[in-house]
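Why run this: before we spend reagent on co-expression, it is cheaper to look at a predicted model of the complex and decide which construct boundaries make sense. The entries below are exactly what would go into the expression plan.
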Amino acid sequence: MQTVEVALTARSYPIYIGEQLLARGDLLARHLPQKRAAVITDTTVAPLYLDVVTRALTAADIAVTPIVLPAGETHKNSETLNAVFDALILNRCERKTALIALGGGVIGDLAGFAAATYLRGVPFIQIPTTLLAQVDSSVGGKTAINHPRGKNMIGAFYQPLAVIADTGSLNTLPAREVSAGLAEVIKYGVIGDVPFFDWLDDNIESLVARDAAPLAYAVRQSCANKAKVVVADEREEHGDRALLNLGHTFGHAIETGLGHGAWLHGEAVAAGMVIAARVSQAMGLLNEVDVTRIIKLLTRAGLPVVAPDFGLARYLELMGIDKKVESGKIRFILLRAIGSAFLTAAVPAHALKTALAASVSHG
Amino acid sequence: MQTVEVALTARSYPIYIGEQLLARGDLLARHLPQKRAAVITDTTVAPLYLDVVTRALTAADIAVTPIVLPAGETHKNSETLNAVFDALILNRCERKTALIALGGGVIGDLAGFAAATYLRGVPFIQIPTTLLAQVDSSVGGKTAINHPRGKNMIGAFYQPLAVIADTGSLNTLPAREVSAGLAEVIKYGVIGDVPFFDWLDDNIESLVARDAAPLAYAVRQSCANKAKVVVADEREEHGDRALLNLGHTFGHAIETGLGHGAWLHGEAVAAGMVIAARVSQAMGLLNEVDVTRIIKLLTRAGLPVVAPDFGLARYLELMGIDKKVESGKIRFILLRAIGSAFLTAAVPAHALKTALAASVSHG
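The model came back. Tokens follow.
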């Protein structure tokens, strides 16, 4: 087991990474302020892992209230959130009763927001069971639900007491979701970690094949990269943290334009990163070699690198309600090179047009 | 104008107290990170004060998006909250667009929770226009909405950038609401400020009559008392802040038992304080003289001192879902004397029974 520490001033917390961690009731118990916990999971993950977690907690003398939600991004909404509140209240969960998110990013985001707002905040622990959740959404304290008019519009910054990433749980993931997780893994290399990008270039096939040792290394390296950024800018106030959104402004537009759930988040981010790279290239900032390396690595990871063709006007409209909008201007994360991302609002329309024309499917 | 500073380590903020402050666009403008703001108010307050605030902001070059909600505690729910989110999104309010709560405690709680969760948190300013909101709910960062099964079950701790308490706005309040506000004012004296309790004993009639100078003094003294407690225990983690809930455990039971809205919050707190005092007396902690002084002062303030008769079992049931429950035990705030409150879970059933029997109406 490896541990990455997220060293936030107000409260630090550990990310445990390794195999067979779901059965480690002691790891969970040491972070619980009360001998009770509500385990929030979904209909996909419950048959796979709810039993092992419940047994581990019970063996550690923790009483468990399971809350099983319908699976999928379409359920990350206020209706499901209210169902969680109803269950918490009916089971008389208290201020010190921890909520444990057992599942992917949707469960982590929703359970985290429930923990942030039930009784004005209760203890929270993440057990991410997808690659995307292990390398991205479970780390950093972002919680949210979707609004019919946009993704993650309603949420809170709320840090967990601990994150437990059992890489063994990735063996039951569909291949498409492994690829989607790799989009965020690759993103860390592209944003600011050239050695990691080079390592991924050498090892991407073994990650797609889920070899245990490289997978644990990729998760550890991704969490360490994310933790560094989160520590520097916990609430996305200084721009540092915004760099993590490379590809996400376009990615969110793709997800919203297609209807949430059509593409996986990581797939949309992959195609979005390609657009961001091409915008950077059209502005004369990024060279062709780097653009090609990014596209090739994403392709080898099994990810889409061609975006849906909504047309420029619709893309701009879809991006207009993005959370990163400031004084009516859209801010973009662009690249000067692999490993060198930056934030800017100064993107000429022609660069957007050229990049989109090169990045969308014409069919 | 007087200023009370809430000296929180993460971020301090001022409470401005005085007359004619609603027209002071400069006071607001100095706290806004953007030349835009959404003013959230209700159908009662909008006709009285929305114009003056909008004009003041416009004169200070701030663009205003007004959001007018239905008035009343019954609307402090997820439906109204969603209406606020819809309006914010439709008007493309951004991360730096401040939400300004203009109204009583319901508007402050709901707008504050909207500010805490819209785009994971946007700037927030309170303009409380009721006495209750000026002396209590606008100070300290508690925000929330109600759930069908309990008051303030869903919420967040979220501090405003500033609080602007215009005592002139109290002149349009119904007398019943002035009295309800005085319940919380008196509470500060009872909890821990004997000189203030004595001052109130000498001046309660001039407060009921809304004399400007004593009113400003009472608001200032109440805010200073509350700020002291909030600074010592921002998130109600150490028990200090829980003392502010004197009378509230019983008060919430009264409000829930009668149906929200039947009694004003301050009225329920007044009757609840009497029960808490009588429990303290039944346990031999508080003497008859102090119990009588509290009851007399509340009565002179125009407040109810007799609670509805639900019976002991129903009271216990109503208190069982209170937020202050810990490991299944109810915690009470009791008194050793006027000015000396403390927190305990060790309350014998006979004391509760005796106190309730003495405090409820038998009709």
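Chain B is about 45% helix and 20% strand. Chain B touches chain A at residues 10, 34, 78, 82, 85-86, 89-90, 92, 94-96, 113, 116-121, 142-144, 147, 149-150, 152-157, 235-236, 320-321, 323-328 (CB under 8 Å). Bring this page to Monday's planning discussion.
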